[in-house]
Design goal:
This protein is of the alpha/beta class. It folds into two domains: 153 residues, Leucine Aminopeptidase, subunit E, domain 1 (3-Layer(aba) Sandwich), CATH 3.40.220.10; 313 residues, 3-Layer(aba) Sandwich (Aminopeptidase), CATH 3.40.630. 35% of the residues lie in helices and 20% in strands. It has 16 helices and 19 strands. An eight-stranded mixed beta sheet has the order 7-8-10-9-13-17-14-15, sandwiched between helices. It has a six-stranded mixed beta sheet with strand order 1-6-5-2-4-3, covered by helices on one side. The protein has a three-stranded mixed beta sheet with strand order 11-12-16. The two termini are 30 Å apart.
């Protein structure tokens, strides 16, 4: 997909469709005023007839008169003018893009508000490129048709370019999550990541099973035992500064399919388990964006990749695994496998002594029960770091909420036969006991755990995005690094 900034008059744009923005209350940006003039007050007539009101995300189709080169106009509401922000711009552009993508169009233009700041334009551009891409990877007749060329009426050329990079990074994460498990498994994920590293300019090291055994990653390898697909661990690095130690380490759970192991999931609970590698996909998408945007920071990315399957070699309830950091773990539920994978991945990241660390995982259904399907759960050992992440997420329009990490929850994962066990005492507080388990493997490193189980994979489409993988937190993480980690 090609994208470029333009300053051409809307009446002269030779495109298949153009998107024009209006503010709530009938306030028209300059480009909308121009459209109203060349159509002899046609846009104002739509406003007077209450066909369009300007509420955020509201749309109206207008087959334009001969005075406008394009025959198809889509009017989109931008909300109150005084409340314009990167999140509102993202949503408005994504809704418009998704609606236009319902039909095949070679060339479309977005003419929202040429006075927007670079940050607002960047977010809007990102929304326009995310909204038009769907999960219909294997449909002969696609539901969504991304245009071949997208034009943006703005002077913020750099913002357009950066918005495209961010959108492509989000869409990479979405595509990986949407691919079936017979396409994305540890080896193929590693191959895709290796190619992305070559294309984007970051370093990558792939650990195979022999290396994982040498490194004594017994927790991760225990989960992988039941599958014919061998485990992998990826160490990715962007050296954007001369800092010896990474300013930030990103660690992702990459269970490319989760059957639950011997603690077998029912069919209904297994249908979407191709998405259980969303944490790893988020780290890869973020590393791609960091490298392509040439951010001046040293960032480390580590992902553990396994399948959790059933066979005669599967790890069993009652088994004791020894993690890379030496802790022993009693397994009491093989469906609580993501934390076992992350245990070793976190320890690998700690070797580089990062200043701060974030891990991402579709870790617990308990977090979805607590926060629903649109909110990421945050757990931390450093309140200031967690606050920074939450504030950054809010600035990007991504929802996150902190859960407590009271020390009493750690008592629930103490084992009588090993150092710790991989589940707490019953259902209650399961997201937090999982967080306390992970805390056992971060030492004194400043750390926040993101449980993305709710929003990482959407069962139903939204006005601004198709169902399936959402790419949640890629935008937040990129903004976090860009503003200084």
């Amino acid at each position: 997909m090609q994208i470029q900034a333009i300053q051409q008059s809307i009446s002269e744009l030779e495109v298949d469709a153009a998107v024009v923005g209006i503010y709530e209350g009938g306030v028209l940006p300059e480009v909308a005023q121009q459209l109203d003039q060349v159509t002899g007050g046609g846009l104002q007539a739509l406003l007077d007839a209450n066909e369009v009101e300007g509420k955020l995300g509201d749309t109206a189709v207008w087959l334009s008169p001969p005075s406008v080169a394009t025959t198809h106009l889509l009017i989109v509401g931008l909300g109150p003018q005084e409340e314009v922000s990167p999140p509102t711009a993202f949503r408005a552009a994504a809704i418009a893009a998704k609606q236009l993508a319902g039909k095949s169009r070679a060339r479309v233009a977005f003419c929202l508000d040429a006075s927007w700041s670079a940050s607002v334009v960047e977010s809007a551009v990102c929304g326009s490129l995310v909204g038009c891409v769907g999960q219909d990877l294997y449909r002969n007749e696609k539901n969504l048709h991304p245009p071949e060329e997208v034009l943006w009426h703005t002077e913020e050329t750099v913002a357009v370019e950066q918005g495209q990079v961010i959108a492509e990074s989000v869409n990479l994460t979405r595509r990986l999550v949407n691919e079936p498990a017979d396409v994305i498994y540890p080896e193929t994920f590693a191959e895709i990541a290796t190619q992305e590293a070559a294309d984007s300019g970051f370093e990558i090291e792939v650990w195979d099973e022999d290396r994982l055994r040498e490194e004594k990653c017994g927790s991760l390898l225990g989960v992988a035992r039941g599958s014919d697909r061998p485990a992998r661990l990826l160490v990715m690095r962007h050296r954007g500064s001369e800092s010896k130690h990474p300013e930030l380490a990103l660690v992702g759970k990459g269970v490319t399919f989760d059957s639950g192991g011997l603690s077998l999931k029912p069919s209904e609970g297994m249908k979407a388990m191709k998405c259980d590698m969303a944490g790893a996909a988020t780290v890869l998408g973020t590393m791609r964006g960091i490298a392509r945007l040439q951010m001046p920071h040293h960032v480390l990315g580590v992902v553990g990749l396994v399948e959790n399957m059933v066979s005669g070699n599967s790890y069993k309830l009652g088994d004791v695994l020894r993690a890379r950091n030496g802790k022993t773990i009693e397994v009491l539920n093989t469906d609580a496998e993501g934390r076992l994978v992350l245990a070793d991945a976190l320890d690998v990241a700690r070797d580089d002594e990062p200043e701060k660390m974030i891990n991402l995982a579709t870790l617990t259904g308990a977090c979805v029960v607590a926060l629903g399907t649109d909110v990421v759960g945050l757990m931390t050992n450093d309140q200031a770091w967690c606050d920074r992440i939450a504030e950054t997420a809010a600035s990007c329009g991504e929802r996150a909420w902190q859960l407590p990490m009271f020390p009493e929850f750690a008592e629930q994962i103490l084992s009588k036969v090993a150092d710790i066990k991989n589940i707490g005492e019953g259902r209650w507080g399961g997201a937090i006991t999982a967080g306390k388990f992970l805390e056992e493997f971060v030492g004194d490193t400043t750390w926040t755990h993101m449980d993305i189980a709710g929003p990482a994979f959407q069962e139903n489409e939204k006005p601004e995005m198709d169902a399936g993988g959402s790419g949640v937190m890629v935008r937040t993480l990129l903004e976090l690094v860009r503003t200084g980690c």
